[in-house]
Specification:
- There is one protein chain.
- The protein has helices at 9-23, 26-39, 43-62, 71-85, 89-99.
- The mean pLDDT is 89.
- By secondary structure, it is an all-alpha fold.
- It is globular, with a radius of gyration of 15 Å.
- The protein starts with 8 loop residues before the first helix and ends in a 15-residue tail after the last helix.
Length: 114
């Protein structure tokens, strides 16, 4: 990334919204849905087939925000998002929406009987 000082919460929100828009495009959505159907409920297959599609979409978008479109760029972007989402609920929500494309919802039991 050229200048980390330009990556503000506002920029992060714009990048995440761009990723969501790209993920919801007809082409990406179709590919992701096909990969999910092929993976079924097998989490290993989800990580093998679905996750790379989502990451590729993310890399295509983050390069517009001065990140490199490679492994290092996606790691740096994710680290910055994780740091920002602790202080910004909008960023946290947008990041959760992106993760929902490859991670199934987690049900946590609230009624624990001993």
């Amino acid at each position: 990334m050229g200048d980390t000082m330009t990556f503000t919460a506002e920029t992060a929100r714009a990048a995440l919204e761009g990723i969501l828009t790209a993920l919801e495009s007809e082409e990406a959505s179709q590919k992701i849905n096909e990969a999910k159907a092929n993976a079924s409920n097998d989490m290993l297959k989800v990580m093998q087939y679905v996750f790379p599609l989502v990451v590729q979409v993310e890399m295509d978008v983050i390069k517009k925000f001065w990140f490199t479109d490679n492994r290092e760029g996606i790691i740096q972007f994710t680290q910055m998002i994780v740091a920002l989402e602790k202080e910004d609920d909008v960023i946290a929500d947008l990041h959760t929406q992106i993760r929902a494309h490859y991670l199934p919802p987690v049900n946590i039991a609230t009624d624990v009987s001993l």
